[in-house]
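User: Fold both of these, please.

Assistant: Here is the first one.
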Amino acid sequence: MAIARPVRPRNIIRHGLNKRKMEDARKTEADEEAATRCELRPQILEYAVRLIADWNERQAKRANPACGRGR
C-alpha cells in the first residue's frame, strides 16, 4: 500500500492562484453576458410590442361586428 505524500504549501498556493484566475474569468464572462442582455432588452420589448399590435389588428379584422348585439 502506497503512502500518500503530504501536500506541499506551494501546491496550495498554485491552486489558489488558479482558482482566482478561474473566478475572475467567470466573472468577466458573466459581466459581458449581462451587458449583452442589457443591450438586447429594448429591442426585445420593441419587437414584443409590435407583435402584440399586429395580433390585435388581425383579431380586429376577424371580429364580426354583429356578434354580441341584442344580448
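And the second sequence with its predicted structure:
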Amino acid sequence: MSEEEGQDKEEEQSGTPKRSGVFRKGDLVKLNVGGEIFMSTWDTLTKEKNSMLSAMFAGTIPVQLLEDSSVFIDRDGKMFAKVLNYLRNGSFEPPKDRATVYELLKEAEFYQLTAMYGQLKEHINNELGSPVTNRFSNKSSCVGKQVVVIKTEAEKDILLKTMTDPMVILEVSSSSFGEEKDAIIYKHLVLFDKLSSDYADKILFVKQIVYTGKEWKFYVKGKLQHSVFFYNQYNGKHSFQEEIILDRILKLILLPEREK
C-alpha cells in the first residue's frame, strides 16, 4: 500500500476530509466558498448528476486542494449555504426579497442546478410577476442564456465537457494595452456583444478573462474547430478580422442543418 493510499484510508476511518484531489462515494468534503468554510459529503455534492459540483467531485473535472484540504470555489459563501441546503433537502423555501431571489438564480445557473433554477424561475414568474426565460433547454444546453463570464480554465473545462451546444469563447486579457491596441480590442468587444445578442438562441457565447492572449475560439460539441486572434500572426500587428469571425459564426449557425 502506498503512503498516499494509507493516508486516505486513515483519514476515511477517522471521518476527516481527504487530502488528495480525488473523491469517491462516502467521502467527507471540506469546501471554502468565498472564504466561508462548509462541510458536506460526496453524495450530497453529486446529487444532481449534470451539475458543475457533480462534475467536480465525481472526477470529471480535477480539483486542487488548499493546505487545509478544502476545495476553494470563488463564489458567494452566503448564497452557497442556500445551494447546499437545497442539495441536502431536495427543495427549499425561496427567499422573500426580490434581490436575494435573483442572486440565488445566478448561483443556480453558475452551478448548473437545473431543478433549483426551474423552481426559482417558477417562483419569480408566479409570485414576483417578473417573467424569466428558461436558460436550460435541456440537461446539457445553455443556448438562449445571457453571455457567460468565466475566469479559470477549470470553469472552461466544465463547459466544454457538459455543453453540447456550439460555443464561442472570447478570451480577453485583464492586462492593460496601448491606445492602438485598445481601439482594436474595443472593436472585437463590440462585435462580440452584437453577435451574442443576435444569435444567443443558436450559440452559447462565453467571455473568458485571461492574463495574456486575446482570441476568439469556436467549439462544436466541446472540440475546438477554429481560432481567430486579435493580432495578425504573420506581421505581429493587431487587426480586426471581422469577415473571418463572421464566417466562423455562420458555420456554427448552419451546423445543425448540415448534420440533418
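The two ends are 53 Å apart (CA to CA).
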